[in-house]
Amino acid sequence: MDKEGILLSQPLRAKVLALEYVRGQVHREVFMAALRDLFIAAGPRFGDEHFLDLLNHLVRAERPMETLESVVRLYIEAQGAGYWLDSMSVAYMIARYHELKNKSDAERWLDYHSQRPCLDNPDITFSYPYSAHVHGLIGAAPEEEPKNIYGPILNRMQRDGAAPDTILINMLIRAELAHGHADSAVALYNVLREHHAQSIFPDETTFSSLFAAAGHRAKRTQDPFPLPPRVLFREMLELHAYLGTARIVTKVSLGAALWQFVVSGDYAGSYIALRTYAKLHIPFEILPIASVSDALVERCRRQLSLNSADTGPAWVDAFLDLRDVNRALLRRETPGATSRRMMDIAKRSLMLSEMADETKSYILQPSVLPVRKAKMNKIRTRRLQLVDTLLLRALAATFHLQPKKLPITTDVSDKLAQKAIEKAVEDMIPPKQSKAPQTKTNPAQEVNDANECL
Q: CB under 8 Å to 263, separation ≥6 — which residues?
């Protein structure tokens, strides 16, 4: 028992040695000799995760890479013949060298990892060094075409028997989107979606990146996104239901989806996205309120800046109820004043309406919650209710006034809005018993095939 206790304390003793070396209490030679003895005494029971922690400790103390190299060599020698440094530590070394703009040494460590004997069932971490190398190369050449950078690395991964993981493909998706290559990003997303059975599947980063890109495209141009956002939302919910993971539909991915639907003018879609917060009990924070409000105010200001004498009543007239308001004064109004006007109208409408069933269910029973938590749930429910009212009003305004026609009644516009919501439900909400997405077996080959097609 005592012996086991001593062995379990080796990682802590290594940290103490490193601390003494960093503070200058021991010379480098003494530190290395003591560390060698410690590694030999501990053997495999030191643990790769503790060794990575030791490396990180030395980096935080701003030790040079020569010191890390020496420590790594000591550790490999102490583990005996046939030992190969674990993937996480190799990825760490590659990342550190890229931070120092040292591409050659980063490639040297990747070569070391590539020579590792092929495993029958390599774990997911086997691809981490390749991901670290791609990340470093893309960061060092932001103007270079992403495919020219990651294409050779993917080919190498395929030869080495390493499959790209979610982290790597998300990195490639963001790189392609940064260069405006939405088609390539969607092709990479399809690779993720088709290989979910191998623990490679889209997560909140994947969906938030794609929704954000779709929203920015909608603000700049009328060209549609290669993957319709409603289809993307439906697939996000399907994967969430099928995989049962909490890292797909989160406040990050759902917030990006909500913002995208609002900026693109799809208020029925944004209404469904908002209701998903309540259905999945996802906290509704301040950020989604701000993003929705800013997008609506931006559209109001854009239409107010135009002279509507020739075009007739606009969406903003119905949305802000501007029948008896001087538009010339509104044009000189600050965006903050327009936002306050919009919120005042929404609050007045809110007092006269009933909250939806989904929103009601968002309030948990106060009897089983601490007072502070119960109060926060009520606050979040009021936030949901306020944005709910804004989106319904924005949706009704799109039908309330038709170009070159007389204004239709409020009842008719409400019915049209309800039909639009029903169509959004049909497009965005998967049936309860949906089929599992089809899977394929070679993600590395699929990535290469997708790139060749594009």
A: 215, 218, 219, 295, 298
Residue 284 is classified by DSSP as -
Question: How far is the C-alpha of 387 from the C-alpha of 259, rounded, in Å?
Answer: 12
CA 65 and chain centroid, separation? 32
Q: Nearest Cα to 68, choosing from 103, 113, 100?
A: 100
3-state secondary structure of 165: coil
SS3 for 309-363 is: CCCCCCHHHHHCCCCCCCHHHHHCCCHHHHHHHHHHHHHHHHHCCCCCHHHHCCC
How far apart are alpha carbons 260 and 231 in whole angstroms? 13
- Which residue is associated with the tokens 């609050």? 347
**If DSSP codes are grouped into helix, strand and coil, which group holds residue 116?**
coil
Lowest mean pLDDT among 169-183, 226-240, 399-413: 399-413
Q: CA 342 to CA 345: how far, in whole Å?
A: 5
Q: Is 23 left (phi over 0), alpha (psi -120 to 50) or beta?
A: alpha
Residue 97 has a pLDDT of 96
CA distances from 215 to 88, 178, 223, 224, 259 (A): 36, 14, 11, 10, 7
**Type of residue at 61:** A
Cβ atoms 118, 161 nearer than 8 A: yes
CA distance 43 to 32: 16
pLDDT band at 371 (very low <50, low <70, confident <90, very high): very low
Integer Cα distance of 294 and 339 in angstroms: 8
* Greatest mean pLDDT range, 45-54, 355-364, 381-390: 45-54
CB atoms within 10 A of CB 4: 9
Task: Report CA-CA distances (Å) from 235 to 33, 283, 436.
Answer: 56, 21, 11
Q: What is the pTM of this model?
A: 0.83
In whole angstroms, give the CA distance from residue 262 to residue 260: 5
